[in-house]
Amino acid sequence: MTTTAITGTTAITMDAARRVIENATIVYEDDRIVAVGSAADVTIPAGAEMIDGAGTLTLPGLIDSHAHAGHGLTRNLGAGAGDAWFDACEDIYTRGSTAGFWQAEAQLSALERLKAGITTCTMLLGGGADHYRTDTREAGDLHCAATRETGIRTMLAAGLNRAPFPKTYRSLDLSRDISLSFENQLAVCAELAESHNDLLGTGTGVCLIMPVYQPDEFAENPETIRRMCRDVMDLREKAGLLFTQDGHRNGSIELAETLGILGPWSYLSHSVDLTTQDMQAAKRSGTSIVHNPSAIMSILGRCPAPELRDMGVNVALGSDAAAPDRGYDMFRHMAQCLHYHRRHFRDPEVMMPIDVLEMCTIDAARAIGLDGDLGSLEVGKKADIVMLDREQAHFYPPIMPLTAAAQFANAGDVDTVIVNGNVLMRHRKTKLDERQILNAAAQELTDAVARCDLEHLLQETA
């Protein structure tokens, strides 16, 4: 058994009392926290390894509840032209990507998340929109392998494309076209779940995802959509999986409830321009909502996150990264969330720092059913811990730690990251070959752009 003590830090615990402890000591044994409190109240066991936390803010590991595999390499294509970028993602993900592409992207995005203090993330295996690389299990296997190599946790959202089927993909070795059916994709999702669904243990989990259908789409093909929903839910229940979706709006949550795809095991991203009935359906079903305040959908519509929270709906925060205008900096997304809703209501007190900190820690853990293990610094919970370097001009004077973390911090302030009791980064140094990861990412994008004749999307606009 290995015992480690963090001393002299300011701990933002996110526990039930939302304690903020100055001159705190945190002790963990192997992968679990055994003590959290002021230095005067915690006895450090003899022989414990010591981490000096002087000049730091310490938080539970951040949880990003919605992001996309693949986007880490394509994020800059098109210089912000949304339609061109979405089309490029479809071309590359379905017809122009190789095993090397998915491996390089998984390693790059994992490195970025680690250095931003994100210890747990839901990653959609594709998207942009509804193009999932589940023709075989290879891309998913590569992503999970990169997660385990990095040491963080990833909930991989594996899923189904939008009807109608079949879809034409190009194999990852680029040797042949594949006619992809709904049944093919569902079988691959089942294989990935059987191999990788152990988020707390190995660091990889699997949830299911299928497209959001709007009421008018459903009316055109109700029986096919109902059958697909039943099949996905049958697998979800059989394998004990979570379920997520990307892009709810304007009546689609109410419809989803009638299709039997909502429950306390579901969490729905974006969720803008919701009707009263949508909000009530989320509340009745115990569904969580994932708010993505920096996403394009939050420009085109508004997620009523404060209103949902007031109703008792659990709301988590997601980066929706990577994309043409955003990355994995959850501190940016916290500040964006505050300004987004304060501007809407013209009220600087609609949301407060503690609210957004909850949304990417304890409430995010609740969305994936793991609030008993993740999301706060408490005895018995996993030792997923992030330490911020507070000895910087933008953090001074060293007062009001909640405000400092939610409104002044950025990803570059993350000094130390601990996951499962393992120190993965200390003083911003990891054990990974970061140069190799960066070089591979650059080369794989260059190759994918050439394969798909997308060089014109590399030009910046004036």
What's the main sheet like?
9 strands, mixed
List segments where confidence is low: pLDDT < 50 over at least 5 consecutive residues. Answer: none
Q: Could you say how many structural domains there are in total?
A: 2
Using the CA coordinates, give the radius of gyration: 22 Å
CATH superfamily of the largest domain: Metal-dependent hydrolases
CATH topology heading of the largest domain = TIM Barrel
Helix content: 25-40%
Estimate what percentage of residues fall within beta strands. Answer: 15-25%
Summarize the structure.
The protein is 37% helix and 23% strand.
Q: Can you lay out the helices and strands and say which pair or pack?
A:
Layout: E1 3-12, E2 20-29, E3 32-38, E4 49-52, E5 56-60, E6 62-68, H1 71-74, H2 82-96, H3 99-115, E7 118-124, H4 138-150, E8 153-159, E9 167-170, E10 177-180, H5 182-196, E11 204-209, H6 215-220, H7 222-239, E12 242-246, H8 252-258, E13 266-269, H9 276-285, E14 288-291, H10 297-300, H11 305-311, E15 315-317, H12 330-345, H13 353-359, H14 362-367, E16 385-389, H15 401-408, E17 414-419, E18 422-426, E19 429-430, H16 434-451
Parallel strand pairs: 1-4, 1-5, 6-7, 7-8, 8-11, 11-12, 12-13, 13-14, 14-15
Antiparallel strand pairs: 1-2, 2-3, 5-16, 9-10, 16-17, 17-18, 18-19
Keywords:
globular; TIM Barrel; 23% strand; 16 helices; alpha/beta; Urease, subunit C, domain 1; 462 residues; eight-stranded parallel β-sheet
What does this structure look like?
GO terms for molecular function: hydrolase activity, acting on carbon-nitrogen (but not peptide) bonds. It is an enzyme of class 3 (hydrolase). With 462 residues, this protein is α/β, with parallel strands linked by helices. It has two domains: 3-60 and 376-428, Urease, subunit C, domain 1 (Roll); 62-367, Metal-dependent hydrolases (TIM Barrel, Alpha-Beta Barrel), CATH 3.20.20.140. Helix content is 37%, strand content 23%. The chain is built from 16 helices and 19 strands. Strands 1, 2, 3, 4, 5, 16, 17, 18 and 19 form a nine-stranded mixed sheet that branches. Strands 6-7-8-11-12-13-14-15 form an eight-stranded parallel sheet. A two-stranded antiparallel ribbon has the order 9-10. A hairpin with a 2-residue loop joins strand 2 (20-29) and strand 3 (32-38). Helix 5 (182-196) packs parallel to helix 7. The radius of gyration is 22 Å and the shape is globular. The model has no long low-confidence stretch (mean pLDDT 96).
